[in-house]
Design a protein that fits this description.
This protein is mainly beta. The protein is built from one helix and 25 strands.
Length: 262
């Protein structure tokens, strides 16, 4: 993947958040979403070799999808220690991407191959494959099925049993298309998305596609001390039962539990 050009789009309290290139529109075309500064609740260890592409909470453990050809896998991880409990390797020629849970299974994407691997959620034993068209970046599940990102400004909603396309959603921020949408999570019916190479998470209305808030991860990123330009924020997991929100990044040393102010 290569870095895309960016333009200043959102200015909050004297600082500018840069987001991917979009066609110019009138300044008053749409309101700018508010900036949300998260509160760090807890910190946990994270594998600094994990090139995190997907993250979710499944009952009693984190599930993490790790990328890079020859090193991609899906793993169950103990939250407190950061140790891998179980691991399933993705074929060496494939680049693993986002992962989502559905009715006792995990489904993990591949970047270019159009293959979605199915795994038993507990044992990580293979249950076969599904096919889809286009690139796979992020994947999350809501009450109806899957939502997938592909690095564009469009989210695609899939039937969870077949990966057939049900609908698509164009995502906009302050009236402009927002590209580079990456890892996804659904929280209380709202979609959260990392933006590739940006220290922000956007909150997306699943009906209109409008970004309704921007979560500022700049202080969290600075705390990690990572210097590699590819060690970007990527990984959002929601523990609905205990209402805990976790974030991390590629090769970050820390996984953060955060709370978003009302």
């Amino acid at each position: 993947m290569m870095r895309w050009s960016i333009i200043p789009l959102l200015a909050f309290a004297g600082s500018v958040a840069a987001v991917p290139q979009a066609a110019p529109v009138a300044e008053d075309a749409a309101p700018r979403p508010p900036l949300i500064v998260p509160i760090v609740v807890a910190r946990y260890p994270h594998d600094t070799n994990a090139f995190t592409e997907g993250l979710l909470w499944d009952r009693d453990a984190l599930v993490e999808s790790v990328g890079l050809e020859g090193r991609s896998d899906v793993r169950r991880v103990d939250l407190t220690t950061g140790k891998v409990q179980r691991r399933a390797a993705i074929p060496a020629a494939q680049f693993g991407e986002g992962v989502a849970a559905w009715r006792g299974e995990l489904v993990s994407l591949t970047w270019h191959d159009g293959i979605a691997h199915r795994w038993d959620a507990r044992t990580l034993k293979s249950r076969g494959m599904l096919r889809y068209s286009g690139e796979g970046w992020g994947l999350a599940s809501d009450t109806a099925g899957f939502v997938r990102s592909d690095g564009s400004a469009t989210l695609t909603f899939h039937d969870p049993a077949t990966m057939a396309v049900r609908r698509t959603l164009r995502v906009t921020i302050a009236g402009r298309p927002l590209t580079q949408l990456n890892e996804l999570e659904v929280v209380d019916g709202t979609i959260l998305a990392n933006v590739w190479h940006q220290p922000f998470i956007v909150r997306i209305d699943p009906a209109s596609g409008r970004v309704t808030g921007v979560v500022d991860l700049r202080a969290i990123l600075a705390e990690t001390g990572v210097t590699d330009s590819e060690s970007v924020a990527n990984g959002i997991a929601w523990d609905a039962a205990r209402r805990r929100l976790f974030v991390t990044g590629k090769r970050w040393p820390t996984l953060f539990e955060i709370r978003l102010p009302s």
